[in-house]
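Prompt: For my understanding, could you write out one protein's sequence and backbone structure tokens?
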Amino acid sequence: MSITTTEQLSATTLLRFATAGSVDDGKSTLVGRLLHDSKSVLTDQLEAVTQASLGRGQEAPDLALLTDGLRAEREQGITIDVAYRYFATPRRRFILADTPGHVQYTRNMVTGASTAELAVVLVDARNGVVEQTRRHAAVAALLRVPHVVLAVNKMDLVEYAEPVFAAIAEEFTAYAASLGVPEITAIPISALAGDNVVEPSAHMDWYGGPTVLEHLETVPVSHDLTACHARFPVQYVIRPQTAEHPDYRGYAGQIAAGVFRVGETVSVLPSGRTTTIEAIDALGESVDVAWAPQSVTLRLADDIDVSRGDLIAPSSDTPATTQDVEATVCHVADRPLTVGQRVLLKHTTRTVKAIVKDIPSRLTLDDLSQHPAPGQLVANDIGRVVVRTAEPLALDAYADSRRTGSFLLIDPADGTTLTAGMAGASFAAVTDGAADADTSAEDAEWDF
């Protein structure tokens, strides 16, 4: 493990990134090489991998085993689940999500990339851009991942030929740019040999760009939540009612985005009541200003009804409240999502009853075509849904805020997560009296 002091770590920034690619493109080997060559592997871990590799008849340690931790993964030589790894260099700290490459594990890639600021998409230099490559680029674009790295792997198997790399980089860059990916960096590598992973390659003098680790260490981290719309989901109401604090009433939670200041005029949503911030308590002390992602307690000037799940925002910059949510979703459960299904919608700290009113389309990631009116979404499907909630919600568009524009659909029977959603533009449903009459009886128990 590389030696870094507490002071060094506290001074470095954090980058969350995910790896993706088609089967056998070498994702796990790349991650293993990255950990090994950056001296982020403990001795006993390396010894265990060495022994496991010898047991499989391999002379050298199989670095892919550093991330393929499940027994089924090692036996099959594939990645099944998302493997999270934490490591650091003197320049930056990292949280890495190694995601599967199989089509049936698209939902796992969505999970790993949902909080990532950068995605590393691997391509086998012998095969070039394939359907799964385009699929992963599309998922990264849908999830608004701001930085994408194209790692053209196995360059040693194409004799480190620059024209091969250039053709793949041109094709992928054109495709990803058409999806709206804002920044794409192409790097030729050999994860097995270590070329351009941590150390520059001696075999590709025609390449003058950064290694993978150098790019990870220097890419601008654009998750400055203080520049976003200020949002404070209330997690807990604090009322000690003790002799020392007889009238204390505070609202605790983590600031999701933006900055809050004492004296600022704020609104409590969905009620819309307006008041001002009287005080902010952080770590037992009163402060004048607080920002994301700090956990604080807000005290308001007026005694108004505020409870868990409410959202506090500046009165001059409040999100619209709605009971009709249209969103892009990825279905993650094995059981399908169907029109008319009753669900729970969890948005920040608020959970409300809801009904799936429509599934207008399912996205075909291979060519980005829309399959209209599929009727249901099954595991790994990405599509559009329209959800009607029992109570108003204050959602931002996912394009504006990944934190307050995302939500989950949950099975009310057993609490299983069904679907991960990214809110689009909210809209007002066209009221149809006959349709309302037909569904009012069955929806009555859901308090619509």
Summary: The CA atoms of residues 303 and 355 lie 34 Å apart.
